[in-house]
# Entry
Amino acid sequence: MYLRYLEDLDTQGKQTASSDELAHLCGTTPAQVRKDLSFFGSFGKRGLGYPVHELTAHLREILGLEREWKVVIIGAGKIGAALANYRGFRQRGFKIVGVYDNDPTKIGQPWGEAIVHDMADLAQDIQREEAPIAVLAIPSDDAQEVVDRIVGAGIRAILNFAPAQITVPPHVSLKSVNMAMELEGLSFALTNSIVSRGAA
Amino acid sequence: MYLRYLEDLDTQGKQTASSDELAHLCGTTPAQVRKDLSFFGSFGKRGLGYPVHELTAHLREILGLEREWKVVIIGAGKIGAALANYRGFRQRGFKIVGVYDNDPTKIGQPWGEAIVHDMADLAQDIQREEAPIAVLAIPSDDAQEVVDRIVGAGIRAILNFAPAQITVPPHVSLKSVNMAMELEGLSFALTNSIVSRGAA
DNA sequence: GTAACTTTGTGAAGAATTTCACAAGCCACC
DNA sequence: GGTGGCTTGTGAAATTCTTCACAAAGTTAC
# Structure
């Protein structure tokens, strides 16, 4: 989150930003900002604040965004398409090296700049390309089975959009985005009249 | 999350589940499960566990899922389409009452079972329909402006897919899903060889 | 050069969350 | 009806996270 705002400030040509400014932008407190950043190093200058451009570079380094990550997208449906369309991905160093589906009517069809590949080739392609990240955008029923296959092929991180709880070995990183669950959280907030801090 | 698993257990015909079972399913600890559930009431039976079907109903009640929520989708792009396609929504009581875009080539076109409406009508439709929830699936640049308009029209909760930080008054609930940020989290985990507990 | 002002970095205090551990309750079997 | 085996609910302890508050360090103005 800090990176997102610092990039904005950087393009605006801002030289430095205080923990107070960053806190207001991010909806947190100055002390929190300083503690968070101090975990990774001592980036600020007393009396001045944090050097925006330099700190941006540091955070990109910390997050591992200075290199290119190869990503495979599994599932050539609407979610997959939304992801592939999203410019932010390539900008941030995520390169989509393949799109896979098991629907014969989709395989071989053009899909953005790429072509939809047969899911049967997925495992060997992951190994050959050494793609470490997979985005899973397929129906829930098949999710765990596909996960097991790509874990076997050496995938190291999975971003899961299937509304299913899946399991991976400890050396594989997993993030799940469950849109129904997000909406249910809003339903809970509305039902119980929860008042926010105004940002999320 | 508990609800998701309890529903699975329920359809499997399981009568009761212990905190230990739920903890294993959800990747947490038995004590955590008991503390969490005890916050809302005393649902379990000592020696037996929690009554699956009954607890499911309780949780649905707590989350406010026993009623129907009207939802407007803003942005008739890929993300909006993915959401509208997603059966889970209606199943869980979220009814899409309108899809809006400001692209003249899209307005009036059929879109799933609905028709794309002109964004100009958005505010008055929200008021007329009394739709409390909006899903924002539009480019970042316009996000805050649209948010201000729908907040003015009385929206009470927003699920934001635009990769922008937006601000709402305290009485409006906001959840943001930022796919680039999720991937960056995975990049961080890979870069720093973080070992997970095996589920997320 | 120095005085007034800003802002970081960080121990210590405070608050929140998670885990522990065990009494109390329920079931099943004899 | 009593006994043994489970499992919850929950205070208390342990841990983690956040906030406070201030010395140290830098900047600006003159």
